[in-house]
Structures are given as structure tokens and as C-alpha cells.
Design goal:
The chain has about 240 residues and is an alpha/beta fold. The chain has 9 helices and 5 strands, in the order αβαβαβαβααβααα. It has a 5-stranded parallel β-sheet. Helix 1 crosses helix 2, helix 3 runs parallel beside helix 4 and helix 5 packs across helix 6. The protein is globular and about 55 Å long. The N terminus is likely disordered.
Length: about 240
């Protein structure tokens, strides 16, 4: 993710091309189905970055283009250069204000929305240990939402989800994934997991039926902006939703 001089993004056209070539080599393929600019470089016009990505499409090395952590205006400017197929931004019951704002733009332009961290980096499963018991290698220790001053508040919000999940005879994770899927057919959640049992649990969210009243109750249980702590540490916040 780090670009030049320790930045979290490098949108220079030459870097776009070299990164694609390196990915093709590592993957051992001739073409990439969906090529993302995973963070927006504020020092490079998005038109220049997407222009280079578009040339990769013309050269047959990439089939479709995507952006990640892009704001509405950036998406519109990029889409004017070349069709953007998908926008990947964080979206969960805990963090949804920016995602819901972005959806207005992606839907207007016919762009799919890929929701990453739909389980709030595990918080919404109700099974996250406290920061004092997290492994030293656990990347979540760096995230403000897991900081000692925030975790108790956030877990109290999750308790509300646990109560509703019991009534639906599903896990909290399945409930919030079902809620997210119900927000629109254009939304594709991508929960991450390392274990087969968690993968199967996530897939089973497709079988959770939620009524309009259920959806409203879930939304109201954790109001927009209720979560404590930023999505990323302060320095990284300068590279998201640009």
C-alpha cells in the first residue's frame, strides 16, 4: 500500500503501469479482471491515474477498473475518464455515513459498491477480545475503535445486535451481513476470514430473512456516528475517502 516517500498511495501513471506488470508476473496471468487504485493519491490528479489505468484496459492487460476509499467527487472525475466498474469503501453497521453518501454517486453512475470490513474488523461478531488480550501481532491493536478508551463503548453497541441475533436464531455476524446485503443488490460485502468455519458462517447469512421492521430496528440500534474511534489511526485518515 505504501507508495513513494512513505505515502499510503502512489497514483503516478508510471507507478500504475509498473504495479500492474508486477502483479501480472506474480499472478502468472495475462490479464487482471478488476484492477483497483486502492488508495487515492492527493498529489496526483485522479484523471492522470485513471488515464494510465485506462491504457492498461486498451492494451488488454486489465478488463475493468475500480477505486478504493474514493469520495463522490473523485469517483465522478475518474468515471469521466474511463468507466469505473466498482468502488471499494468501508461499509458496516458501525461505519456507514461515508458509504451511504458514496452510494448515491455509484448508483447514479451505475457502479457496483464493494463493502470491505462489513463486520467492523470483527467487532460486529461479538467475539473480539479486549485490547489487553489481543496478540501483539494483531493489526487491530493500532485501530482507534479497539483502543481501551473506545472498545467498551463499541462492544456495548454490539450487545444490542447480539440480542436481535438470538431472536433470529443466527450469529451477530450473520445478522449484520444480512442487513448489509439488504441495503441493495449493487452491494457486495467482502468479509475476510482465515478459517473455513467462519467462511461457512458468513455464507449462511444469505439464509437470514429480515423484514422491513427488522432492518429499521437494526439500523436504529446503532445510529449513524454512534461508534467511538476513527476508522484508522490519524495519519492514515489522510489517505481515505478522498
Amino acid at each position: 500500500m505504501l507508495g513513494r516517500a512513505g505515502k499510503f498511495a502512489d497514483g503516478r501513471p508510471e507507478f500504475v503501469v509498473s504495479s500492474c506488470e508486477a502483479s501480472l508476473k506474480r499472478l502468472g496471468v495475462d490479464v487482471i479482471d478488476l484492477y483497483y487504485q486502492h488508495r487515492i493519491d492527493p498529489d496526483v490528479p485522479i484523471e492522470d491515474t485513471v488515464g494510465a489505468m485506462a491504457r492498461l484496459v486498451e492494451d488488454g492487460k486489465v478488463r475493468a477498473l475500480g477505486l478504493s476509499e474514493a469520495g463522490p467527487q473523485t469517483i465522478r472525475r475518474a468515471h469521466a475518464v474511463h468507466k469505473i466498474a466498482a468502488v471499494q469503501n468501508e461499509f458496516s453497521l458501525l461505519y456507514r455515513a461515508e458509504a451511504e453518501e458514496t452510494l448515491q454517486t455509484t448508483r447514479d453512475l451505475g457502479i457496483g459498491f464493494v463493502a470491505y470490513s462489513p463486520l467492523g474488523r470483527g467487532l460486529l461478531t461479538g467475539s473480539v477480545p479486549g485490547p489487553e488480550t489481543m496478540a501483539e501481532t494483531d493489526a487491530r491493536r493500532r485501530h482507534p475503535r479497539f483502543a481501551p478508551e473506545n472498545i467498551a463503548h463499541n462492544m456495548e453497541l454490539v450487545r444490542r445486535i447480539e440480542v436481535m441475533a438470538r431472536t433470529k436464531k443466527c450469529t451477530p455476524g450473520q445478522l449484520v451481513l444480512a442487513w448489509l446485503l439488504a441495503q441493495g443488490d449493487d452491494i457486495v460485502p467482502i468479509p475476510g476470514t482465515k478459517r473455513k468455519e467462519r467462511l461457512l458462517e458468513n455464507i449462511a447469512a444469505l439464509a437470514v430473512h429480515l423484514t422491513k421492521d427488522d432492518l429499521a430496528q437494526i439500523s436504529e440500534s446503532i445510529p449513524v456516528g454512534a461508534a467511538a474511534g476513527l476508522r484508522y489511526p490519524e495519519p492514515q485518515m489522510k489517505s481515505v475517502y478522498l
